[in-house]
Amino acid sequence: MLSGWRWLAAAVRAAFVNCxxxxxxxxxxxxxxxxxxxxxxxxxLGVAVGAITPGAAPAFAFLGDIFVRLIRMLVAPxxxxxxxxxxxxxxxxxxxxxxxxxxxLMFAATTAAAVSIxxxxxLLLRPGDNADLAAAAPKALGEAKSAYDQLIGIVPLNIFDxxxxxxxxAIIFFALMIGVGTLAAGSAGKxxxxxxxxxxxxxxxxxxxxxxxxxxGVFALIAGAVAANGAAVFLNIGKxxxxxxxxxxxxxxxxxxxxxxxxxxxxxxxxxxxxxxxLTIAFSTASSSATLPVAMRVAQENLGIRRVITSTVLPLGxxxxxxxxxxxxxxxxxxxxxxxxITADAAMLAxxxxxxxxxxFGTAPVPSASLFMLAAVLSAVGVAPEQTALIVGLVLxxxxxxxxxxxxxxxxxxxxxxxxxxxxxxEMDNVLAPQLPVxxxxxxxxxxxSAHGNGAGK
Length: 458
Description:
The protein is mainly alpha-helical. The chain has 22 helices and no strands. It has helices at 2-21, 26-32, 35-52, 61-88, 94-125, 147-152, 159-165, 168-184, 190-211, 214-229, 238-263, 268-274, 276-285, 288-301, 307-310, 313-320, 323-339, 346-361, 370-380, 385-395, 399-425, 447-453. Helix 13 (276-285) packs antiparallel against helix 21 (399-425). The longest helix is centred in the N-terminal third of the chain and has 32 residues, at 94-125. The radius of gyration is 23 Å and the shape is globular. The two termini are 44 Å apart.
């Protein structure tokens, strides 16, 4: 730990030396540094404070609470406005079908791959062998929504109630209806389209402002997590934690990286450097919804993906693009069977695969929601609710770190799919790869022509 403090002190001294060379005050140097570097500094300091002086962590808790509230304050209005504005930039409502179909197929493919990777890691590493269930206190989760209720719930009874509750699928449905209605209105809908694009620009500027608070929020959240759980939040989860990390890395390396390099045709290293801010927020908040505002900003500014894609694909991905959750549910299902000393045959593995892949689409984009899906998967293979409660009781004390880890591949998947769809639809400005041509020529976009002309596509 002492060497870590020496490293941090050396970094601070180097920062002040650079400030002197560039005639910058420490405050200006802090603001001038890339956001991901400031967030990383907050994360490191949070770990140090939580580990060395855990009693001081509660004093900073208000910073984390404010940060999470700021992010969640933006999510519902951002999704509503950005999707509606994105639909209006399509110009032709028929493009929405092509865009939506490709997006759903891509997310379905990455989700299926994630479940397979999670199950494979579980079968190879066998993290559930010799798990101590005797010390686990049973935890009841209550009943998850049925598939029928989830499907019907997409159509909101009251959009204001859906906005208050943060019901993403209902908000997305309403936003799509507003966008399609604006296009169908023709010339009478042009003022509404302009208003939606203006509001989306304003909201993105608000996102920029909120993101300046990110390092302080991450510092407080990490310090609180480490102080509450000690080193256990990172180290004491054993083979299951290792399996989650390995599964997350494999999903990114063997699914996302090939898609970025071969389909989106972008430089892999620069792509992941460009989305570093979003991945950091995903790890610190453990929430796909909380990551959405940052993901939309980096997709437009760092990847050159036009707003017609970021405002439709990314909000949809925050609701259904759950690679991390799918991988984790597949892995945790295998872990549970091993812990309960149940031997899984081929038929049981097939049921786990299908149930986990379908359940991942309905997982709420909030921390620990995957435990509801675990109950559904285990129920499908005949595990009793009492046994499921024991598994949840064993995992729940450490679930915060596991949740933080598996949210990273979910955020990566969302931005990867957005880049792929942007390339296929010819809606990428090639910021990362100016030498590459788009794969298809851009069609006449109607409203989109004025949108791009005004910089709305950036």
